[in-house]
Design brief:
Helix content: 40-55%
Protein name: Arginine repressor
Order of helices and strands: HHHEEHEEHEEH
Radius of gyration: 16 Å
InterPro entries: Arg_repress (IPR001669), Arg_repress_C (IPR020899), Arg_repress_C_sf (IPR036251), Arg_repress_DNA-bd (IPR020900), WH-like_DNA-bd_sf (IPR036388), WH_DNA-bd_sf (IPR036390)
GO biological process, one term: regulation of arginine biosynthetic process
Largest sheet: 4 strands, antiparallel
Pfam families: Arg_repressor, Arg_repressor_C
Number of helices: 6
Strand content: 15-25%
Family: Belongs to the ArgR family.
CATH class of the largest domain: Alpha Beta
Structural class: alpha+beta
CATH topology of the largest domain: Gyrase A, domain 2
Length: 153
């Protein structure tokens, strides 16, 4: 199965089921005879604009972002509220900490990149740390405020 077919199948799985983890997605792919790696799944999730959302009971699962920018900002705000623990600004850079070992920093980076937030010129993400780079300290302060406004409700 080539990359396009695998990605179509991932979208189908995400739309048909409430998949809570990458491991669960990887297992579903393996069960369907699709051999791949965790790193590949991570890249596919990012490329396909798949993020985690919460249901009414607080369970998180993967959903694919819609093309409506207002809807995507809602997903960003939800992601910030549910996953960002701290933020610190250093000159023109914001350092954002998410849940430890959640890999959510990369998902948030993808959301900022996809939305093309004007005050963010670049992102860099690790497992639980996201770096948001702005042109000026003033732009960084606007990003800081956006995140603070949506942290923890």
């Amino acid at each position: 199965m080539d990359r396009k077919e695998r990605r179509r199948f991932i979208v189908q799985l995400v739309n048909e089921r409430k998949i809570e983890t990458q491991d669960e997605l990887l297992q579903l792919l393996t069960d369907a005879g699709i051999e791949t790696t965790q790193a590949t799944i991570s890249r596919d999730i990012h490329t396909l604009n798949i993020v985690k959302a919460s249901d009414a009971n607080g369970h998180t699962y993967y959903v694919q972002l819609q093309k409506d920018p207002a809807h995507n900002y809602d997903r960003l705000y939800l992601g910030i509220r549910n996953n960002v623990r701290t933020i610190e600004t250093v000159q023109f850079i914001n350092v954002v900490k998410t849940e430890l070992n959640s890999s959510y920093a990369t998902i948030l980076a993808g959301m900022f990149d996809e939305l093309d937030v004007p005050e963010v010129i670049g992102t860099l993400a690790g497992n639980d740390t996201l770096i948001l780079i702005s042109k000026t300290p003033e732009d960084a302060q606007k990003v800081y405020q956006l995140i603070m406004d949506h942290m923890n409700g």
